[in-house]
From TrEMBL:
Positions marked as site (Important for beta-aspartyl-AMP intermediate formation): E360
Keywords of the record: Amino-acid biosynthesis, Asparagine biosynthesis, ATP-binding, Glutamine amidotransferase, Nucleotide-binding
UniProt-listed GO biological process terms: asparagine biosynthetic process
Name recorded for this polypeptide: asparagine synthase (glutamine-hydrolyzing)
A GO MF term: ATP binding
Catalytic activity: L-aspartate + L-glutamine + ATP + H2O = L-asparagine + L-glutamate + AMP + diphosphate + H(+)
Length: 634
């Protein structure tokens, strides 16, 4: 696991720029650094050594030294690819997976990506053509960004590296503020920085020597091969084999591998399978004297399978004090409250191991979210009641006082692309009208992502929901925070359930093997019952709970939020009276935690990356924990 940076050379760029860019992300690779520079391209690399510790230095070259690679991630089938390339005449000097990428690209070009199983982002410079090739894994486990304003082209594992380049123009992408307030992330290639783009999951770019950049899709998850003949029992058998195989592949390392462990089925299943291969230490996070703490569950389970568990705890002060630092590491604002827990869990885990397994992806691929259960009632309602009647009922009740069933009637008149709660996960259009200072910034969030639902418009609503989550919630929230919160602590996190082979099978599962009655991810639970105690396999989905909602009501934390809600940044973008009203509603018992937290984290993020004192332009509110003082931005 590593981090890399690069740019197309320009005559006015100081020679130490590439080093400064790499230093910005040295948390991703504290073990080693190296650089490449010719008259066309500069490339930098920071290494976290996991496989073949003594070798594997990057940038890495092909056999005739005409292609140069920097790579972040792990290729789990690299040994098979290596044999295939050896049969083609390629010679290998190391035992690292990086070398199969540089030789594989030399042999197959972009078709290399069809061979890969793993989590990865990499860039290859071809000195003969002057082209730069960049690629990202199938599901977006590893990040890759590029800056392209038509004159300057940069790329990096994290956006913050661009701050060190003199030709990077740092501009806030205000047009996306409403989209962020709806989703808590930006569900597209765009970012909160103008001219900075995510390379999308399953895509690659080629930046040509003439300055033109093109992107291509090489993989797209699809539900085109659903097999209605499958049964829960048969699928459970297949899942057991798939999980066993994937965990085995994800255990490859020349350093000790640990595992995150919550009280839920996903991380418990992953840990249990890993423990069959070798003793493995698990790590769990809880809260001091809190009903939200899961430590008793996780400790008991680890003991039950005879593995060591390390319990970690955090307080409200820990949570709020670290928020500006978290926003720095995130690159873009992300208001998922579990990010702070994941930060402290990663920090504690890194003290003992360099690699940790985690259970992300099971809910998206196997149907684990409770909201999927509402698909059938809405489908029955829409089938039974004509559209004009549903719209009339919705119009009649929308402004009435709350009563049981009102929300169902209102939402029942909407298409799924507008109704699905992920689309207006935090603020809906009317909420945004109240809080945004500039009403012209408000946008239709449903229209912004409708094209994703259109991809699967011929499928049932639950399948559409899962497809949407796999293409938005999973890469932009779940995997994004997993990468940032682990890598800022120089910890590699691997996700065996976010895997090409696992996804290939999951795409064939009919609804009847994903949910049964009110039971979610029923086939996965059936598989787990053969391996885990029933109380674990059957445990309801809890997410990553925290006492943040109750902490907000405590004076010392409420005052911090009030200060942010009346700050210059808040006044710049929001109607502050409306923000204070939302906060007061929460204090009075109406749950508005996610709304409060989304605004609060956005303000902290903006203060970190766009401080009002632009002459100093420093990231002054970030508390340094594991690495040296952050260099000043340009």
């Amino acid at each position: 696991m590593c981090g890399f940076v690069g740019y197309v050379n320009q005559t006015d760029v100081p020679s130490d720029t590439i080093v400064k860019m790499a230093n910005r992300i040295r948390h991703r690779g504290p073990d080693d650094e190296a650089y490449f520079n010719d008259d066309k391209v500069a490339m930098g690399f920071r290494r976290l050594s996991i496989i073949d510790l003594a070798h594997g230095k990057q940038p890495m070259y092909n056999q005739d030294q005409t292609k140069v690679l920097t790579f972040n991630g792990e290729i789990y089938n690299y040994q098979d690819i290596r044999k295939e390339l050896q049969d083609l005449g390629y010679e290998f000097r190391t035992d690292v997976d990086s070398e199969v990428l540089i030789h594989g690209y030399d042999a197959w070009g972009p078709d290399l990506l069809q061979h890969l199983r793993g989590m990865f982002a990499f860039a290859i410079y071809d000195s003969k053509t002057g082209d730069v090739f960049g690629a990202r894994d199938h599901f977006g486990i590893k990040p890759l960004y590029y800056y392209d304003d038509g004159k300057t082209f940069l790329w990096a594992s994290e956006i913050k590296a661009f701050l060190e380049h003199p030709n990077f123009k740092k501009e806030f992408n205000e047009d996306l503020l409403a989209i962020h307030l709806s989703f808590e992330f930006i569900p597209s290639k765009d970012t909160m920085f103008k001219n900075v783009y995510k390379l999308m999951p399953g895509h690659y770019f080629i930046h040509r020597a003439d300055g033109h950049t093109e992107t291509h899709e090489y993989y797209k998850f699809s539900y085109d091969n659903i097999d209605e003949n499958q049964t829960i029992e048969d699928d459970a058998i297949k899942i057991r084999k798939l999980v066993d195989d994937s965990v085995d592949a994800h255990m490859i390392a020349d350093v000790e591998v640990g595992s995150f462990l919550s009280s839920g089925i996903d991380s418990s299943y992953v840990l249990n399978e890993a423990a069959k291969l070798k003793p493995i230490q698990s790590f769990s996070l809880g809260f001091h004297n809190s009903k939200y703490s899961e430590l008793s569950w996780s400790t008991e389970f680890a003991k039950e399978i005879h593995q060591e568990n390390t319990p970690l705890t955090m307080t409200g002060d820990d949570y709020f004090d670290i928020l500006p630092t978290i926003m720095y590491y995130m690159d873009e604002p992300l208001s998922n409250p579990s990010a702070m827990q994941l930060y402290y869990l990663s920090k504690g885990t890194r003290k003992k191991v360099k690699v940790a397994l985690s259970g992300e992806g099971a809910d998206e691929f196997f149907g684990g979210y409770n909201t999927y259960l509402e698909a059938k009632p809405f489908e029955r309602y829409q089938k039974a009641v004509p559209g004009f009647i549903r719209k009339g009922l919705a119009k009649a009740v929308v402004n009435l006082p709350r009563f049981h069933g009102r929300r169902f009637l209102v939402r029942g008149a909407e298409p799924l692309s507008e109704r699905y709660y992920r689309v207006n996960y935090v603020f809906d259009y009317h909420d945004r009208e109240k809080i945004l200072k500039n009403p012209d910034l408000n946008r239709d969030a449903g229209e912004y992502t409708k094209h994703i639902f259109d991809d699967v418009k011929d499928k049932d609503e639950m399948t559409q929901m899962q497809y949407f989550d796999i293409n938005t919630w999973l890469p932009y929230d779940i995997l994004h925070k997993a990468d940032r919160m682990s890598m800022c602590n120089s910890l590699e996190v691997r996700t065996p359930l976010v895997d090409k082979e696992v996804a290939k099978f999951a795409s064939t599962m009919p609804i009847k093997t994903r949910i049964r009655g009110t039971e979610t991810k029923v086939s996965l639970r059936t598989a787990a019952l053969a391996e885990l105690p029933e109380r674990v396999a059957k445990k309801e989905k809890m997410g990553f709970p925290s006492p943040i909602a109750s902490w907000i009501k405590e004076d010392k934390y409420r005052k911090r939020i009030e200060e942010a809600f009346t700050s210059d940044v808040a006044k710049k973008f929001f109607n502050t009276d409306a923000l204070l009203e939302i906060l007061q509603e929460h204090i009075n018992g109406k749950s508005s935690m996610q709304k409060i937290f989304t605004i609060y984290t956005f303000i902290l993020w903006y203060e970190v990356y766009f401080p009002e004192n632009t002459s100093a332009d420093t990231i002054s509110k970030v508390r340094r924990t594991d690495i040296d003082k952050i260099p000043a931005a340009n």
